Every structure is written in C-alpha cells, then in structure tokens.
C-alpha cells in the first residue's frame, strides 16, 4: 500500500502571499489531520477532516483553512502569509482515527 | 499549557543496551497513547501505541508501559541499535465513546543517540 503523499515537498513564498498544500492519504483512510512543526512550538494540531467535514480544530488563526474531497484527498490553505508561518507542515491519515500515519511533510519558507 | 511533556531533551546509550524514553501527561481525558520516531526532514513514523485500559504493550524490541495513576508512560527499546538514533515523540489523544477525533497532542521530543 502506498503511504501518505504530500505535495509540494518544498515551497518558498513571500509575506502576504497565500499557499495551498496537498495531501493524499493511504488508500481506504477517511480521516486526514494536519500538523505544523516549528522549532519553538513543536508539533501542533491544525485540524482534522473526516468524510469531507472538519471534525476537529486546533488553536490557529482563521488564515489557516482546509478542505477534504470525496476521494479523501485534503488541502490546506494559508492566506496572508507571515514570517512565523515558516514550518514543516505534516499531514497524517488514519482509518479509525487512533494510529495516524504521516506523510513526509511540506517545508514552507516565508521570506 | 503543555499537556504532554518529555522532560529529557536527549538520551545517549550504548549499542545493545536498553533505551528508556519517558513521557508525562496532565490531561486525565487522554485515553490513547502513541510513540513516533522521526528523522530530520521526514514525517514521524508510528512505532507503538497503548490504550488506557492496558498497562503494557510489546512489539518486537519496543515495549510501552503506562502508569495511569502517575500519568506517566515510557518506551523501552531492547536491544538498542545505532539505526534507532532519531527523535522520539510521545503523543496522546482524548477520544469519546470509541470515536477518535484525529487530534494528537505531542511532547517536545527526545533525541536518542545509540553509539556503536
């Protein structure tokens, strides 16, 4: 079975721009969660989608949003980028929600 | 408020010996715990998990122990191998009625170095 894939792997943007990241879960997995990893804050939960509905949300500003499609693929969007948004963005998928399997991440650099 | 804490930023052990990684949590609602291993520039790799109804779970060289009264869990790796050198994260989730809502709360990680 193919693992979780994320595109792009690396991205460089400037302040004020917006960005869209993509995640394809493991086949059969209906839950997709997103996390942000930074050196200062560690791994923090952004949101989770299940069957195209946002089921859980972390403590991030409204500039961070996401969606899930009928094939379980998910996208997250960050608008009006700030320098502090530079991070590794990780997507994880799960079947029942307990064990989550992570993709390789997208490294976002905001200049 | 950090609900999951890994108080040791790093651990160094000799190949063949036991590695013990520790994790403490404060949220009594957590009922499922996981350990992940992570290399730089890669996503975390799932290692082992444990439900709050158990106090031990084994998988090969990895054993996780849970002490609910102390709100403490530990990961034992025996024997340790140089390829185990990585950052180890513990994570916890609070689930309702058997339904997980896909939110993991992570500790800050412990860097394990296994010397040949």
In short:
The complex is a heterodimer of chains A (111) and B (116). In chain A, 0% of the residues lie in helices and 54% in strands.
What's the arrangement of secondary structure elements?
The complex is a heterodimer of chains A (111) and B (116).
Chain A: E1 5-7, E2 10-13, E3 19-24, E4 31-38, E5 42-50, E6 53-57, E7 64-68, E8 74-78, E9 87-94, E10 101-102, E11 106-110
Parallel strand pairs in A: 2-11
Antiparallel strand pairs in A: 1-3, 3-8, 4-5, 4-9, 5-6, 7-8, 9-10, 9-11
Chain B: E1 4-5, E2 10-14, E3 19-25, E4 32-38, E5 45-51, E6 56-59, E7 62-67, E8 72-77, E9 86-93, E10 105-106, E11 110-115
Parallel strand pairs in B: 2-11
Antiparallel strand pairs in B: 1-3, 3-8, 4-5, 4-9, 6-7, 7-8, 9-10, 9-11
Descriptors:
heterodimer, A: 111 residues, mainly beta, 11 strands, 0% helix, B: 116 residues, six-stranded mixed sheet, five-stranded antiparallel sheet, 52% strand, globular
Describe this structure in words.
The complex is a heterodimer of chains A (111) and B (116). In chain A, a hairpin with a 5-residue loop joins strand 7 and strand 8. Chain A contains no helices and eleven strands. In chain A, the strands form two sheets. In chain A, strands 2, 4, 5, 6, 9, 10 and 11 form a seven-stranded mixed sheet that branches. Chain A has a four-stranded antiparallel sheet with strand order 1-3-8-7, with no helix packed on it. Chain A is globular. Chain A starts with a strand and ends with a strand. Chain A is mostly beta strands and 111 residues long. Helices cover 0% and strands 52% of the residues of chain B. Chain B is built from no helices and eleven strands. Chain B starts with a strand and ends with a strand. The mean pLDDT of chain B is 94. The chains are: A mainly beta (111), B mainly beta (116). Chains A and B meet through strand 4, strand 5, strand 9 and strand 10 of A and strand 4, strand 5, strand 9 and strand 10 of B.
